[in-house]
Amino acid sequence: MPVSAGQYHVRGHFGPVVNWPLIPLQVLTLPDGRLLSYGSDATGRQSGLEIYDIWDPKKGVGPESHLTLPNTTGTDIFCSGQLLIPSNQTVLLVGGDRTVDGRRNWSSPDVNVFSYAVNQLKSSGQTMANPRWYPTVATLANGEVLVLGGRLDPTHFVPTPEIYTPEKGWRALTGASSDEAFGSKNWDYPRAWQTQRGDLVILSGTGDIFSLDVTGKGSVKKLGAKLSVGHVDVPSLMYAPGKILSMRNHGEAYKVDINGQEPVPTKLEWFGMARHYASATVMADGGVFISGGGLRNNSDKDHILANRVTMIWNPVTEKFTMADVAQKNRLYHSVALLLPDATVFTGGGGAGYAKAENNLNAEIYYPPYLYEKNGSGQLARRPVIGSAPDFIAWGHQFELKVDAEVSRLTLIKLGSSTHVQVFDQRFLDLPFTKEGNAAYKVTAPTSANMAPPGYYFLFAFDKNGVPSIAKVVKLAAPAVTS
Ligand SMILES: [Cu+2]
Fold first, then answer.
1. Does residue 401 share a domain with residue 261?
2. Closest CA to 454 of 9, 86, 47
3. What is the total count of domains within the chain?
């Protein structure tokens, strides 16, 4: 049962199911406020070979809000990895699917780029050293992109990470080959985050935790801490600097603090039930929204065990609570991602192995913070950011004007979601002081390890906890901010 209007300010509210030109099983927010999606053809069949879509939320949710374009690269970008490259207004797409002798689900070494200023997807002219299907991508503190994991062909995996230096090219981390960390034992979109020291922590589905040093030829070591088993189909995400919420099998969840020399896992209160193929995204206030998934797996038989009740994890109380109920089952190949207006895009489910679903649709979730607190179910008036810089620099202060008394400023890196993963999303609170009428002096993040270069949503909250629509700011070194 969907929640009643009197509960919107507590449990949030889903808008109606809206049609989508394809199954949005890979989505990415662009700095201009639009959403890139792809993963199936127009009928919902597994394929990234034919089309991709750019949705402009400012134009609503009807057909006129979509720009659906042909993919002319020759690469099937189904189950690739994708990430924004801030230096040249492109999205990097690595790897994907390949058909060999009529059989799908081989791997591609192709590297493509989507230039969002001109709405064009084309080959980068380079390939990775290894073909990869299901690779993870992560922006590093120096702006390079780490690519790790993925399958090489139907029976082999890729144990060696590679690094992309924008506008230069690729190098392999030959000193960091590991079947355990991101090869055959943990190849499926491995979970990896940079720590404040600059290494990356990898949480494996087996429960083992690894540290990857990306300097030089790279090296990898297993750390002492351990989690319970978490299959590849349950989400983990960084919800605060150096802090990861990791959902595991059997409805277990951990908070993992990676700020010290050794990761510190703390088991959280049971969150209710197993949620295989759920998606998770950080919201504007740092809460984690969890949607979709089901009790077991994704076969036709278990289809009825899908869970449409969504949840919010509160990072302050560290408790899960029930949120609104979606209309569609969203299992394998579904996604969730924060949008610039502080709503959450949820969509997809289906294609390939998941063809019991054919979700050529999406549902937008309106979190509790958008509603009046009096139970009227009305959307609250939102504060408006009047002026803010386009560029901010690590450790530097900047001016901000907001038409309301500001209680909180949050900064969230634009993410990229697929396969229960959300690449690159980061959440930070920003310290600020009031400088006079509606003016604030704000301090940008100090660490590129904790806040990598790139585009962020900046949200201003009023004294009722209602967020503005985001101003998109680019975080970079001072030299490029002038
Ligand atoms: Cu897939």
1. no
2. 86
3. 2
